[in-house]
Amino acid sequence: MLFGAHESISGGVFMALERGQKATCDTIQIFNKSNHQWRAKKLQPKEIDKYFELIESTGISVSVSHTSYLINIASPEPGLNERSYLALKEEMERCGLLKIPNLVMHPGSHVGSGEEAGIEKITENINRLFDALDDASVTLLLEATAGQGTNLGYSFEQLAEIISKIDNDDRLGVCLDTCHIFAAGYPLVDPKDYKKTMKTFEEIIGFDRLQIIHMNDSKKEFGSKRDRHEHIGKGFIGLEGFSNIVNDSRLKDVPMIIETPKGDDLAEDIENLKILRSLVKK
Ligand SMILES: [Zn+2]
Ligand SMILES: [Zn+2]
Q1: Ligand 1 center to residue 176 CA distance, Å?
Q2: How many A from CA of 180 to the centre of ligand 2?
Q3: Neighbouring C-beta atoms of residue 49, cutoff 10 Å
Q4: How many domains does the chain have?
């Protein structure tokens, strides 16, 4: 199984691999550019060379990149919507350059325009994106959200609806975030409930779409619709919930990535990954 964490690219994209090694990751998630700026600095050949060298020498894979938080392809505001589309396209191209197989994105917020209008904007943009990009090596992943505010993508049905409206849907996958789906009202703790949640997922979306799982415990209670990540075992999902997930044979090939707060020494990542690995039953 592949366990890992989101690691910072501060100092250059290759630095994420050094951090991943320190944090005992098998695989990592990165931002492929600064996550709170529209502008992306061009990746320099030297930086890219060092990045591939480190993938080789550490044996750590980069299984996914996460889009900037500024991007909202559901936005009803034409300027912001176009800017989001262009930024998303650039991030897809950067993933291609860095040979990252998945780019994960929050579907978007309708900001008052209504769910139907928001979903229409999302699907228009994704269809346009796949038409514009010849390189099909990067899969775009829709991340399930907690349903906070006007965020879309909080139910398996809604994600399936978006997928159904995409022409080249083989270029689209999903990412489940344990904290988000738990907050959105999908139980994970009791083994019977967990089975039911995953059966619903299988029926509505299907495991073939599932490329990445974000492993975050939840600071907020079940169904809270609040997205607040907690360290593994310290929140409302608890060790029971994570034990269900790491021992589900259908998920054994899906990279599991933590996105929890940490200091510069990455001690929290090391501890969280140790806990996750210890839950796997032989
Ligand atoms: Zn996530
Ligand atoms: Zn989150």
Answers
A1: 7
A2: 6
A3: 11
A4: 1
Domain that residue 144 falls in:
3-279
**Backbone dihedral angles phi then psi of residue 256, each to the nearest 5 degrees:** -115, 115
Question: 259 C-alpha to center of ligand 1: Å?
Answer: 7
Q: Could you say which ligand is closest to the alpha carbon of residue 229?
A: 2
Give the ligand at the shortest distance from the Cα of 143.
1
Q: What is the pLDDT along the chain (282 residues), one digit of tens a residue?
A: 999 999 999 999 999 999 999 999 999 999 999 888 898 889 999 999 999 999 999 999 999 999 999 999 999 999 999 999 999 999 999 999 999 999 999 999 999 999 999 999 999 999 999 999 999 999 999 999 999 999 999 999 999 999 999 999 999 999 999 999 999 999 999 999 999 999 999 999 999 999 999 999 999 999 999 999 999 999 999 999 999 999 999 999 999 999 999 999 999 999 999 999 999 998
Distance 179 CA to ligand 1 centre (A): 8
* Ligand closest to CA 180: 2
Which uninterrupted H or E stretch holds 240? helix 238-246
Bridge partner residues of 6 (DSSP): 29
What is the rounded CA–CA span in Å between residue 275 and residue 147? 28
CATH number, position 235: 3.20.20.150
| Cβ–Cβ under 8 Å, residues 26 and 61 | yes
